[in-house]
Amino acid sequence: MPYVVRKVRGKDCYSVKKKGGPKNKTAKNKRKIFSKCTSLKNAQSQLRLLRAIEYGKNFVPRKSVKNRK
């Protein structure tokens, strides 16, 4: 899994980051932050969304229901 949920130090919230070690500091492999301070429930939802976008072969993000014709 390339994404991790970490608890923010000193606060009651969580962050969602792309997994990458200190050796992977190239522009392509930097640790991207998707969520800085959110609840655990929202962080887990964010993980599911990121995994669906990356691994779901039939996943199609849609802007709104009104625009579909």
What does this 3D model show about the protein?
It is flat and about 40 Å long. With 69 residues, it is α+β, with helices and mostly antiparallel strands. It has a three-stranded antiparallel β-sheet with strand order 1-2-3, covered by helices on one side. It contains one helix and three strands. The chain has one helix at 40-55, and strands at 3-7, 14-18, 33-38.
Report Rg.
15 Å
Q: How are the strands ordered across the major sheet?
A: 1-2-3
Poorly predicted runs of 5 or more residues: none
**Helix/strand/pairing class, anyone?**
alpha+beta
Q: What's the order of the H and E elements?
A: EEEH
Shape: flat
Name its key features.
69 residues, alpha+beta, three-stranded antiparallel beta sheet, 23% strand, flat
